[in-house]
Specification:
- The structure is a single chain.
- By secondary structure, the chain is an alpha+beta fold.
- It is 36% helix and 15% strand.
- It has a single domain, classed as Orthogonal Bundle (Arc Repressor Mutant, subunit A).
- Helix 1 crosses helix 3 and helix 2 packs across helix 3.
- It starts with a helix and ends with a strand.
């Protein structure tokens, strides 16, 4: 039986996914997925690495958020709450 983090890592090796995608696939709340993804990023083995497409504001395009492995609540530039989730993949 695989652990939750192993299942997340296996899913991310198959292709990119957001925390919402992973939560839906693995029946986990989104905030729990972010905690697991942060740990997976430190424990990826071999030559593989966790790549992150950072969150981006849908209104102004800002993507310079401080923590790319987190879902910000609003944009620091335009204050919009329309933020695309970060996407993760292991390659």
């Amino acid at each position: 039986m695989e652990t939750t983090r192993q299942r997340i890592a296996d899913t991310l090796r198959e292709g990119p996914a957001t925390a919402s995608d992973l939560g839906e696939t693995l029946s986990l709340p989104t905030h729990v997925v972010y905690d697991h993804v942060e740990h997976v990023s430190r424990s990826v083995d071999g030559d593989a690495e966790l790549l992150v497409a950072p969150p981006a504001c849908r209104d102004c395009g800002f993507d310079g958020f401080d923590d790319p492995i987190n879902e910000p609540s609003r944009c620091p530039e335009c204050k919009s709450e329309r933020i695309d989730e970060p996407a993760f993949v292991i390659r």
